[in-house]
Write a structure and sequence with these properties.
Number of helices: 6
Structural class: mainly alpha
Number of domains: 1
Order of helices and strands: HHHHEEHH
Mean pLDDT: 89
Largest sheet: 2 strands, antiparallel
Shape: globular
Strand order of the largest sheet: 1-2
Oligomer: single chain
Distance between the termini: 13 Å
Helix content: over 70%
């Protein structure tokens, strides 16, 4: 599933670009306020939604590269066979939770779409646009966990950072 790995890398790349853009935006906003040059009232809203998108676009990449925090005190003390079983169980739990969150966020997205509510901020847009990122992310996370359950541990490649495209 090379296309899937490329999709995950692309989402991680977008998250990284957005993080750099938000950093530059906040620095410019602070400097502009400090020197009383101009005001960017939209920057706070952009930062809020940007952080939201960064979280949902970056999560699959972080998971697929094992970049998340792990507390492996118990796993390290087990025999290799038992540790392998425990990791497989944790991957199953991750797949089930991601699947449940996928279904839940689909319901929330559909209700927001049907209601037609808008977000009353500097940027006016339909509320469902915000929720559109979550189901896709949880589906991708579920696929990653399922792959880890189905593929033997020795064949799992978590070095996706070697090649972005």
């Amino acid at each position: 599933m090379a296309w899937f790995d490329k999709l995950v890398n692309f989402l991680g790349l977008i998250a990284g670009i957005l993080l750099v853009a938000l950093t530059v935006l906040v620095c410019c906003d602070v400097m502009a306020r400090y020197f009383r040059l101009f005001s960017m009232p939209w920057s706070l809203d952009f930062a809020q939604y940007g952080l939201f998108v960064i979280t949902f676009f970056g999560a699959p990449w972080v998971l697929s590269t094992n970049g998340h925090i792990t507390i492996d005190l118990v796993v390290e003390r087990l025999s290799p066979d038992k540790a392998k079983v425990l990791r497989r169980i944790s991957h199953m739990i991750g797949a089930l939770m991601s699947g449940a969150l996928f279904v839940f966020t689909c319901v929330v997205l559909w209700r927001a779409y049907q209601d037609g509510t808008t977000v009353p901020d500097t940027f006016m847009f339909p509320e469902w646009w915000i929720y559109a990122f979550a189901p896709t992310t949880f589906l991708i996370l579920m696929i990653i966990f399922v792959r880890w359950v189905l593929v033997p541990e020795e064949q799992i490649d978590t070095s996706m950072t070697k090649e972005l495209f």
